[in-house]
Amino acid sequence: MLSIIALILINYSISFGAIAFYENSDKVPETARCNFEHGWCGWTNAPDSQLQWTLHRGSTPSERTGPSYDHTYRNETGTYAFVNSSRGNGLGDRATLNSPVFNPTPPYSSDPDSPYEHSCQMRFFFHQYGTFSGSLGLYLIQMKPHQNQSQRLWWSYGDRSDIWYNQVVALPNIRYRYFLQFEASKSFAAKADIAIDDFSLSPECFGIGVPRDVVGDFNYYSPVIESEHQIKQHFDFANETVIRVTTCGAVGRYGPTLNQCTEYNAAELESQVVHTASSSNTSLEEISNFHTIGLQKWTVPRGGYYTLIASGARGGRGSGGMGSTLGALARGVVELEKGQTLYFLVGQPGADACTKSLGKQNPCVSSGDDNEPPSVGISSFVREVKKMKLTHGGGGGGGGTFVFTIRPSGDLQPLLVAGGGGGLGFGKFTDDGIQHGHPPTSERTQIQGFAPTEKAGGAGGGWNTSSSTDMGSLAMGKSLMKGGIGGKGCHERNNSLGFGDGGFGGGGGGCRTGGGGGGYLGGTTGVKSSANGEGGYSYGSPELLHPYFKGGFNPGPGEIFIIPGISGCGCDFRCVAVDRHLSETRCLCPPGWQLGNDSRSCLADEVDGAQQTFVIALVAACVVLFLTSSGLCFLLYNRYQNKKAHQERRQNMFGNGTELAALQTLTTENMMTEFNPNYEFAGNLYSIKDLPQIPRESITCVKPLGQGAFGEVFQGVYKFRRNEEAPIAVKTLPTVTTSQAAADFMMEALIMSKFDHPNIVKFIGISFDKNPRYIVLELLAGGDLKNFLREERPRPDRATNLTMRDLVVCAHDVAGGCKYMEDARFIHRDIAARNCLLTCKGPGRVVKIADFGMARDIYRSDYYRKGGKAMLPIKWMPPESFLDGIFSTKTDVWAFGVLLWEIMSFGYMPYTGCANREVMSMVTTGGRLEKPAGCPDPLYGIMARCWHPRPEDRPSFATIVERLGYCLQDPDVINHPMPNYDILPDCDREITIMRPDPEAECINVNTEVL
Which of the residues 197, 572, 830, 851 is marked catalytic? Predict the structure, then answer.
């Protein structure tokens, strides 16, 4: 009684929804509706199904299962389609029913702004009744160019009682032809049947019952499917011969034999016979360590231009049986001579993995001990599923396709290589794009991938690289130089069936992960479980014309097209086709000629025309020269006089361009140093004349910025064009100064002029024609890093505005500039926070290294006067520098560690309260600065490595930049809380620390008390 009431309610709820359909039922295609009363209506059983859908009337054969009548007439005279599960052999047996093929759905059905969104629907009735009933699924299969794509639309499982249920499913956006698929799967018991009836597609799927302005250009019977457009051949190539080189029907790891190619090419009327290289006496066989089995060759019948088009082979599918992995396309035009021989290796597809299925005997599936007797009953099914292990889920990599020649020296020269597709991984298909064959790349070196674990597939083979020592060597594809044999799939129980084998052409064998594709550079295999193998990489010789590469192109075996150039297409010289359909053409010109703007005509190099123009211009110039000779001579004389006066003034100022090396000897009794001790410069002789000169009238000083080591530093304006100005910083040298100061000033200018890096202050020029002398630099408005850190120290009443990421970025900027100097083999010798400037104080700040040769007077207490001459930054120096006077790039590394400590401590003075002599004693005996409060451990680890007593054990700046980059990516570092200082010194003033007696012990200063 309950079943009857439910059935009445269901029928009443759908009756109004079906009115619109039946009103237009005569307008929709006949295959769009089916009640199975007159047969299958175009529906068919899939050929590989273990169970079959059958048409039936009345009750199903078994009791208490299936429907007792159909849905259409609700009596025993009506027909419905059902699956008799009692005929299956085991758990997971499936019955698949495919619908007729339909054209794409209308665009308005998938338009969220349209009132007819989701109006294209599929409607049907289903019946699931019986103990342990299986599942019923509805799938959409789109017929895409490379492979059908499956998408589950609806799924039902279990016993739904003896009732016909209505189901309405909206179809998604479909741009290809498609068909629908019902799949019934058996459970572990036999007493359960599944039935369907009264299938229909709504009229909106065909543009029926929808206003014309909504339908627009949609026409169900004339669909616009881009992949089905036919490409027209160019009429000038209608009767031309095209050479097509194929795999000769060969599949698997090994290439074709002579007999295979002879039989295959005899059947292919459009192809010319191409001999295998191993079938005749060829110089290839005389090359040591080169295998010729499976290679093919072709001799050029006449000289001229030829288009070469190569396609790599696809990779194998994974155990899911779905997805696509395509080979790459490579193309180029080359000029060949008559009698020249081209050699080919045509890539073969990677073998598919064994498709996983519970409904049939699966040679890929291992379910425990083979000698264990089979058990029966429901518990046995559960036990078998629990023991089941899929051991061979990855497809093999597709082989790359190679075109090459042999030089007179016997060396192989590649012309064109198209990469093969990688094998798809175990499990559900993931379209990450890495599996397709790739265009050429300059980012990878010519090395082969490796199999990281025993369950991973093999990498693809390259041009001349391979690996035989790796544990996965059998699965790895061989390089072309080693025969291009595909890697072997790693399944142990089924070696003879070839599941997952790599294709000939270097394809890697598959296992849990897909094998890599072959190519000029072989693709690597997946590292994670179920990962796809990487496609191989293509290559084109530099001598090719019109090169073109496309990844993810070929869905089948590799092939090569050779298309001779012709005279035609409206070209003055030669016409070549650049696609396999002979539709797209290009015009070529002979050497010494160039293609005109119309891309057809050939224009001679304008040598004769240029000579004629030169003669005319020469005659005209002679006439003009006679009339203007007197004026020209006058201008030249004035220019000479001005230049002479300028040289005299420079001679008075700088000794006529005296070399800096000579200025080093101009010392006096009052000089503090013979030469700037903080910087080292190459021993070459340089003159101040080598620096860019800026006229004094182009520089305007606006306001002073501070006092430098030699003189005042001003903010100014540089007018470098008529109406263009730029802010600058002007470092001055007083008029009254020593010759040593002048030499140091010029040395700093020379040093800074050699650098060009975003983290080093940019040098603009000098202005030495008048006193005071100027060095012009870019203006950095943020001030120096040390004062900036002091201003940003956290206070009890104000937290700092900086984050740990801001501090690490500052250190990273300085390290970048130091790396540049390290690469240039330059030693700064005074890396410290005071010598670094900021572009601004707000977000987006950039730190730059400055002060190449001068330190400000305020920091003179931080230097140690060595020998009464040199002032050295002891607190920033390693032991070998202040003990032995040894300076190297490792000296700057030590100083950078101290600078990093300054940054993390917000500008505190290192070794606070200690005199220079105490610092020297402390550092020499192994003492080091303690970790600043709140400093992350990775950053202090960098400091500690910079302070290693042995210079050779300190890291390079390249390593430091890398480590700081890791810190910027580490959330534990960049999210580290900033230090909380209870009592801090006022940032506007410095606390004066009394220096102890040089013989006294170092004073331990508590910052919280200060």
Answer: 830
Select from 108, 65, 67 the least CA-distant residue to 87. 65
Question: Which residues, in sequence order, are CB contacts of 1004 under 8 Å at separation 6+?
Answer: 913
Separation of CA 497 from chain center: 36
Count of other CB atoms within 10 angstroms of residue 420: 53
Tokens describing residue 810: 């500052």
d(CA 88, CA 83): 10
The answer to whether the beta carbons of residues 319 and 354 sit under 8 Å apart is yes
Last residue of a domain, one of 226, 251, 268: 226
Same domain as 160, residue 173: yes
Q: Hey, which bits of 555-682 come out as E strands?
A: 559-564, 574-577, 585-588, 593-595, 602-604
Same domain, 821 and 770: no
Residue 505's closest CA among 285, 278, 296? 296
550 is in an annotated binding site: no
Give the chain's domain count.
4
Residues 203 and 281 in one domain: no
What pLDDT sits at residue 318? 86
Q: How far is it, in rounded angstroms, from Cα 180 to Cα 496?
A: 36
Higher pLDDT, 470 or 780: 780
- 611 occurs within a structural domain: no
Q: Is residue 616, in this structure, part of any structural domain at all?
A: no
Please report whether residue 604 resides in a domain: no
For residue range 107-120, what is the model confidence (pLDDT) as tens digits?
999 999 999 999 99
* Calpha distance 726→716 (Å, rounded): 9
830 catalytic? Reply is yes
Residues 480 and 568 in one domain: yes
Amino acid of residue 632: L
Highest mean pLDDT among 88-92, 222-226, 640-644, 661-665: 222-226
E strands in 768-825: 773-778
The total of other beta-carbon atoms located within 10 Å of residue 70's CB is: 28
- Rounded to 5 degrees, φ, ψ at 36 are 65, 15
The parent domain of residue 949 ranges over 782-1010
